[in-house]
Amino acid sequence: MGIAEIQEEIIDEFSMFDDWMQRYEYMIELGKSLPLIDEAYKTDDNIIKGCQSKVWVHAELDEDKLVFTADSDAIITKGIIAILIRAFSHQKPQDIIDANTDFIDEIGLKEHLSPTRANGLVSMIKQLKLYAIAYQTQLN
Amino acid sequence: MGMVRTSLDVATIRKDFPILNREVNGRPLVYLDNAATSQTPQQVIDVIVDYYHNYNANIHRGVHALSQEATDAYEEARQKIQKHFNIAKADEVIFTSGTTHAINLVANGFSSFLKTGDEILVSAMEHHSNIVPWQMLAERTGAVLKVIPMNQNGELVMEQFHELLSEKTQLVFCNHISNALGTINPIKEIIDASHEVGAAVLIDGAQAAPHIKADMQALDVDFYTVSAHKLCGPTGVGMLYGKEEWLKKLPPYQGGGEMIAEVTFEKTTYADLPHKFEAGTPNIAGGIAFGAALDYLNQIGLEAIAQYEEELLKYATKKLLDIEGLKIYGTAEKKTSVISFNIKGIHPYDIGTILDKLGIAVRTGHHCAQPIMDFYQIPGTVRASFSFYNTKEEVDTLVEGVKRARNMLL
């Protein structure tokens, strides 16, 4: 499935929820089920410093696709990471570079992507794209 | 719940604060981030609006009526501040943009007095704004920064403070009240002991001023700093109190208009106090509103405020401690209405996010006091800070919110 299709799928899932409580509970569940990043990659080099919660991201190439693993010390942040990874992992670098993140607005989590929000998620998206650019260069 | 007897008429007081009527995320706002900034009563807002409606003009230099009115109002505010803090001379009140500016002004001034081997003492529970300027000062001068440690309750270890003091100590810096923990520090003891070895003392009063009326002459402190926005005044204005002898000795911080007596290209003569430290056009409306905020607080009475906030603190502490896994950081015997806490197994950011969805404003994170968080080995805390316009019902809402967050997150 391409990034756009996965994003549509996520929007569909979230449209089932009536209120923020349900959305957050679902997100917290996603956070808890996020496959853990290999401890070896949970290093300071891989840390994205938000002001409050820490986020670690690791990327590696599987043939022509980029695979992301990530973690955070805050569970809500981890839930959003799980959503982002679902959308962007196992995709071609060029597709990641071209993708947008509007679906986050549509599932009612816009407030988490404000650049002034101190959770490191904006930096995380930027980091995913930077990895994609770096690996795209390598593939070329 | 039953009728609550309080020394303040909170229902009437709340009517003074228009912002308390608003909703957040579809729920009535419960504002518990007062240690970060207090809300502004209509009486203070009116003073700001009145200034811009009726007598906005630059001060101290105009020949015209508006300038004179603005100057009078600004200087009257200075006198209100002088009176409130029982300061000997109005010239010892320097308007600044806030506490951070005031501390930097003093730190910068001291760079011309300090030499290699001199020591600066700073408490372990400082706000970053009271650590970084001294670190920069130490780097510039070769002086050594030493730390007064704290114990698990969040109290300064005074025995060690006395041991650290020596004739090498030139400066001692400490907050009156810790922003992250609410601890009220024994500043009189610190000031007196420091003076015995000839050291100057700066007390950061940012967190204390909304709760305690500090008496500068009785404290005999050398410098004391206050931010208006913590005490129902506007942002961007504050006070540096300095003893006249120190202010005369310190070099000016910034060059510009207002702070000069005479300028030629060869030499500038600096203006007298307080203008020597007030370069450029100040925050005129802010300064006047600062005075109005003190009027507002004094009309209610700081003792009544402190007594009511103590009630809220006790009530909230008891109810929060009933929640399983909840730990409060900062359990000093003497503390103000600040509760810093965590729940075992939950990141403070997650609790803050859920509380925000419930319309409850708290602060989460390290509260610009990372050394304290390192001391407790935690990433941060959730901090609820109460003001005299908060109610026990709001405490109940907080407690319910925290329980709900706990259920969702664990």
Mean pLDDT value of chain A: 87
The oligomeric state of the chains shown is heterodimer
* Broad structural category of chain A: alpha+beta
Helix vs. strand class of chain B: alpha/beta
| Main beta sheet strand tally, sense and closure of chain B | 7 strands, mixed
Assign the CATH architecture of the largest domain in chain B. 3-Layer(aba) Sandwich
Query: What is the string of SSEs of chain A from the N terminus onward?
Result: HHEEEHHHH
Within CATH, the superfamily of the largest domain in chain B carries the name: Type I PLP-dependent aspartate aminotransferase-like (Major domain)
Distance between the termini of chain B: 29 Å
Number of helices of chain A: 6
List the strand order in the largest sheet of chain B: 4-10-9-8-7-5-6
Largest interface comes to:
A-B, 16 and 16 residues
**Total helical segments of chain B:** 14
Number of strands of chain A: 3
Helix content of chain B: 25-40%
What percent of residues of chain B are in strands?
A: 15-25%
CATH architecture of chain A: Alpha-Beta Complex
Descriptive report:
Chain B: InterPro entries: Aminotrans_V_dom, Aminotrans_V_PyrdxlP_BS, Cys_dSase_SufS, Cysteine_dSase, PyrdxlP-dep_Trfase, PyrdxlP-dep_Trfase_major, PyrdxlP-dep_Trfase_small. The complex is a heterodimer of chains A (140) and B (410). Chain A has 140 residues and is an alpha+beta fold. Chain A has helices at residues 3-15, 20-33, 75-88, 93-98, 103-106, 121-139, and strands spanning 47-49, 54-62, 65-72. Chain A has a three-stranded antiparallel sheet with strand order 1-2-3. In chain A, helix 1 (3-15) crosses helix 3 (75-88) and helix 3 runs parallel beside helix 6 (121-139). Chain A is globular. With 410 residues, chain B is an alpha/beta fold. Chain B folds into two domains: 10-37 and 301-409, Aspartate Aminotransferase, domain 1; 45-299, 3-Layer(aba) Sandwich (Aspartate Aminotransferase, domain 2), CATH 3.40.640. Chain B has 14 helices and 17 strands. In chain B, the strands form five sheets. In chain B, strands 4-10-9-8-7-5-6 form a seven-stranded mixed sheet, sandwiched between helices. Chain B is globular. Mean pLDDT of chain B is 93; it is low at 1-5. Chain A binds chain B through residues 20-21, 24-25, 28, 51-54, 73-77, 118-119, and chain B through 25, 346-350, 353-354, 357, 364-366, 379-380, 408-409.
